[in-house]
Design brief:
homotetramer, mainly alpha, Arc Repressor Mutant, subunit A, Tetracycline Repressor, domain 2, 2 domains, 10 helices, elongated, DNA-binding
DNA sequence: AATGAATGAGCGTTCATTCAT
DNA sequence: TATGAATGAACGCTCATTCAT
């Protein structure tokens, strides 16, 4: 971050505009994909000039990084609110259902493949992504341990990895406008069953 | 199949040159991502001029489509060879292990996120991808039915969808240079167990 | 006079800040050349914002002009101190040696070619440069006349022109990091000899 | 040089255009200075599009390098033709006169300060410049040795350095539109006299 | 089957400058 | 005095594409 941008956003006007840019950038990424993501298009969508956009984000990479973190923050905020009422098992099923159902939304369906692709090619993106999934798995592992306190920390983390990865994979098949979208409820059912069986009766490696 | 320009001499004319271009294009996609994929770079890697490249593939989209199909064909060929010896259950576990272990390779790790992303934005890509997964699921569903003949066609296909999606999701976590690569064997173990349980004892929606 | 931001605390306000900017601008010119000289870089180096820099120097040309004069003033100040002790001939040799040796320094080596180039393209620079060389020649002509009072004013000025021009030319060859830097002493020797011969025995046009 | 440009200029049309670009680029450099030298302006002057310009010179640095070498080659060609008739001493005076008089021309007056400045900041320019002056000095040293065969190789080279540097310095004072242009003949006179004296009677360091 | 030449659009970035605060 | 915000122009460069050879 350039020194000259240190106190950018000091005025409310600037802060609002910055957030607006991030929203607009996210929309463009989701609508067009990263390979069609350009500063000119972001600027146009935001109703400002390219020069001004680059006043807020001196380099494209700065905007991309900030935008991804902006979206990721939304998901992280969701994780904190995710634990509801009922027994641990009920909570677990509720989480699974929430997360899988979320895949149906356009934002989730399109955003994550872009993130996965980007993280394979752009240094600096990987860390944000890994942090997010790390936090996600921690929430899962916590509930898993409450369901079966006999598991070790390592085992519950291993299960959390398996569950979260399995769920992510469905993005491609039951997401927004995806062919198996109508199978969402069945996926939730199969996932809940098999995940709970693994937690309670499976021989979890460890 | 030679992968790179190392065997350039082997691609002298016609179909060979075409295949050489496709190989080189795939390598570029995997090394740099689609947002860095350009005809100029492909031409340079292939040791020919842009004009000549466009003799073989008149438009960029033609090359991209052909290249994706080229790679997908490799995977489809693998599916046909995948069924080995032993009981259906042993075959199933072998398949799961093969497919999950394959995620560790650079090609698979990087290629699929690009494909998923592209299929969200470029018409014409989606069909190739869907066909591939369709064929993949058919192989799985076949074995599933052999393990538990009591399941309906629909149920076995549903399970195949769930299994394949779950496996794909691990690309992001246990793939080439991914942080949980060392968990691959444990993932195979948890997947095999829970998948088999679902096939044999689960209440598969139907 | 402190050269860089090291003593930034010393430049708190008003004239100090102005001088600090001028120092920093000179350093940038010398380090990067005029074609890489921008207000943004000066501002950053000076630890202030572009807006503030333009409070002191409303237009880029104002800063450039002031900066060049700032450096030129340093050289003019040197000229006033240049005349030392001894006979006129000893003084002359001392001056030649001082000036030629000064070419070895980075500041002189790099600054003057920038000045020469600029004076060819930017109106308003030429005058400052001409004034400086005028003053320089006056000092030389004065000593020349003392060595050979038989010369006319015109002749001594003509010699001063020839001597100063000859010396300036060595900037490109014996300057900072230049290939013939180690010849500096020999150049001083040849220059002193031939210049003195011209003053005393040559047929100076006039 | 990019591989894809290997056989550019294979057609006569391309070769002509390349030379035209170089001429136009030199004119722009001389008219406007390097800090106003842009690919867009070169393209416009050449009557082509920027894209086409960059087909011939993939990077700005390639154009600049080629253009400088193009101009330098002209001067080098002059050096080869410079030696005329008469005694070595007559030849020497003729060379001095030729070279100094050449400073009066706009091309020489403006081109060299740009070259000197550039060579201080852009790697790759320095070598071309050094090579040119090296060749220049070789011609001078040759004649010097013929005038006074008693000098060593080293001494004649040292004199050549001193003479050439001294002459170059006059660019700034007697060049095109420079204030002392009318002194050119007198400079030739003083230079010839003092240089010959140094060759024949001076104590050349060595 | 292959290259040379050219175009036009778009890219990320830098810049001098203006103006409100 | 000094910063934040914004503009408009220009920059070097990459690109897909077209066409003549």
């Amino acid at each position: 971050m350039a020194k000259t941008q240190a106190s950018q956003g000091a005025y409310k006007k600037g802060k609002d505009r910055r957030n607006h840019i991030l929203d607009v950038a996210r929309d463009l990424l989701i609508d067009s994909g990263y390979h069609n993501f350009s500063l000119r298009k972001v600027a146009e969508k935001a109703g400002i000039r390219v020069g001004n956009l680059q006043y807020y984000f001196p380099a494209k990479s700065d905007l991309v990084k900030a935008m991804l973190d902006h979206v990721i923050d939304d998901y992280l905020a969701d994780f904190d609110d995710i634990r509801g009422h009922g027994t641990p098992e009920e909570q677990f099923v509720a989480v699974i259902e929430d997360v899988i159902t979320d895949l149906n939304g356009k934002k989730t369906t399109v955003f994550f493949p872009e993130l996965w692709s980007l993280s394979n090619h752009e240094k600096g993106i990987t860390r944000s992504m890994d942090n997010m999934y790390q936090r996600y798995r921690e929430v899962l592992a916590e509930i898993i341990l409450e369901i079966n306190p006999g598991l070790s920390q390592e085992q519950s983390q291993r299960l959390a990895l398996f569950f979260s990865a399995s769920i992510e994979g469905h993005t491609i098949f039951i997401g927004y406008r995806k062919p198996w979208r109508k199978e969402t409820a069945n996926i939730v059912d199969m996932a809940s069953q098999s995940f709970l069986w693994l937690i309670k009766d499976g021989r979890v490696p460890g």
